[in-house]
Each structure stands twice: as C-alpha cells, then as structure tokens.
Amino acid sequence: LNHPAISFVWNTRVTGLARTRGRINGVATANTRTGKTAVYRANSVILSTGGFENNLQLVRENWPANAPVPPRLLTGAGEFATGDGVGMARWAGAQLRDLDRHVIFDNGVPDPRDATGQRGLNAQNPSAIWVNSSGRRFINEAAPGTEVTRLLEAAPRRGYWMIFDAPGARRMNVRDAPWLTPERIRAEILDNPALTTQADTVAGLAAATGLPEHGLRTTVQTWNRMIDSGEDFQFGRFAQSQPGRGVSGVRTPPYYAVRVYPMTRKSMGGPAINLRAQVVRADGTPIPGLYAAGELTGAAGVNGRYGGAGTFL
Question: Whole-model pTM?
C-alpha cells in the first residue's frame, strides 16, 4: 500500500492507550523482537483488534451465567484474538456489552501439533453419526448450525463422539491449519490413538472409548436399518422422498470414534459504539478520540447470535 497518510509499523504490539486532558490521542507500543517501546500520537485512535476467543481465561470469565462452562474448551479463533482491545477500552472508561455472547463451534478436535493441548481444529464428516456419553445418537447431524448449538448447549455434558467406518474415514475433513492435507489428516488425526479410537468391532470400539456397549451397538444397528429402509425415522436426517447426501451405514471395519469438543470461534460483544463508531461510556456519551470497529465491537450481534462470515466487517 502506497499512500502518503498511511504507514505500517511491523512487529509491534500496542500495549495501551495514551490520553491527554480526557482525550485519547495515541498508543503506547512495544517491539515484539527488540522490546523497544514507543508512543505514537494521533488525533484519534481506532481499536480494531478483533475478539478475545483465543483467550480462554477471558472466555471462561465471561461465559453465559445460565450455562455451565464446558470441562474442556478448545480455542479456535485467530492467534491474536486475545482481548487486548477489550482491556484498553475498559481502561478508557468504555461501556462493555454482551461479553458473554460467543459463537462456539461444537466440532473441535485437539490440534496434534499444539503442545499446549488448547488449540482446536474444525472437524467434519458427512458420513458420521454423533453419539453422546450413553452411546446413543441424539441429533440430526445435518441440522442447521443454530439448531445443533441450541441442542448441545442444553445437553448435560457438552461434546460428543463421531462414529464412522472405513469408507466413512475417507470423508473425514479437518480445517484450520495450513498443513492439513488428506495424507496428514490420516497420519496425524485418524491414525493418532490420542485423538481417534479404532476397533475391528463395535463392541471393541465401545470398550476402547468407554461408551456403553449396548447403547453403541443398538445405535449402529438402528442406523444401518434406517439406511436400508431409506428413512431416518429418529431425527429426520433423510427420508425416502429426500434421500440424504452421502449418508452410509456403519458396517465396514475398522470402526472409528473421534471425540469432539466445543471450540471458541467469534466474539459477539465488546465496547459499545454509537452510529459514528465512537466508543461510548455507560451513559452513552462518546469517549473523545476513541473509535472501534469490527469483531471487537460485537458488530455481528445485530443479527442476534449468528456470526456468519463477513458479518463483522
């Protein structure tokens, strides 16, 4: 970008806001390589630091009061979605709103290349059936995302297992890392006993995962019968008049079980702004010199709870 009024300062993190006589008029920074500090002055500052879904402590502190925090929660947002902008806005006296509103994906698997065990990857398999801790299928796996999220939020223990067989393993898709290829998905996820359980029988799969054998066996048998009859009479995933795309039975060993966990994705709250994008205090008055934009403001919240692609722009 070549513009006389715009320049970039690389490898630099903003550590705080500068304020003179009540007006925000700059930022304090630190170079991430050398540690050198500096202050940059401007008539106005725009906070556009993104959300805070990569900060599990902040997410847990702002979890909805009417829902239990999942025992295991993975991070699935950008590396720098750490909530710095929320902290700076709070320091400036901003009204913070809807910090307890998050877009949570419920199909996270731990990233095998993340030494902390906190990073999640987005796992999908259109051939899989989902079972709960009783080994029972509990949902239409092809339902709209908002419906799936609502049902999973109401579950006693959030999370489930994906169950599929050898042909279904070829349809396993995992996203959110540049190294993920079909070969790497097979080697580092499907063939990784820390993430995926394999067995030659359904009973063996139940024993290895700790799922009740009777529940899992009955679920698989019922699913196969519904495939043969052409209708999902349990949850309506497919019907004879509208056959499901890509659905198949669970019949061919080895059988697979992948444990998935809730995974943070997008923030739906942050510092309140007015129609001019000025950050405002609790009484609605703007903080001189301070503006905010994008996911930091929870902009997608105008659509309720749906944080679809592009809605933060």
Answer: 0.90
Q: What is the spatial distance between Cα 108 and Cα 157, in angstroms, rounded to a whole number?
A: 15
Contact 263, 74 (CB under 8 A): yes
Strand order in the sheet with 286-292: 45-47, 286-292, 278-280
Nearest to 102 by CA among 265, 293, 272: 265
- pLDDT tens-place string over residues 223-258: 999 999 999 999 999 987 666 666 889 999 999 999
Q: Is the peptide bond before 254 cis (omega within 30 degrees of 0)?
A: yes
CA-only gyration radius of the chain, Å: 24
What distance lies between CA 267 and its chain's CA centroid?
10
Nearest residue to 142 via CA among 107, 176, 167: 107
Q: Compute CA distances 286 → 42, 79, 93, 271, 293, whole Å.
A: 17, 30, 10, 11, 14
Ramachandran region, residue 11 (left: φ > 0; alpha: ψ -120 to 50; beta: rest): left
Taking residues 256-264, what's their average pLDDT?
96
3-state secondary structure of 310: coil
Contact 94, 283 (CB under 8 A): no
For residues 11 and 283, what is the distance between their CA atoms, to the nearest angstrom?
A: 37
Backbone torsions φ then ψ of 168, nearest 5 degrees: -65, -30
8 A C-beta contact, residue 206 and residue 258: no
Q: Is 171 helix (H, G, I), strand (E, B) or coil?
A: coil
Given a contact cutoff of 8 angstroms between Cβ atoms, the answer to whether 163 and 141 are in contact is no
CB 238 within 8 A of CB 97: no
Q: Which two tokens stand for residue 58?
A: 């902040």
- Among residues 217, 308, 312, the alpha carbon closest in space to that of 270 is found at 312
Tokens representing residue 27 in the block: 């930022």
Phi-psi category of residue 305: left, alpha or beta, with phi > 0 → left and psi -120 to 50 → alpha: alpha
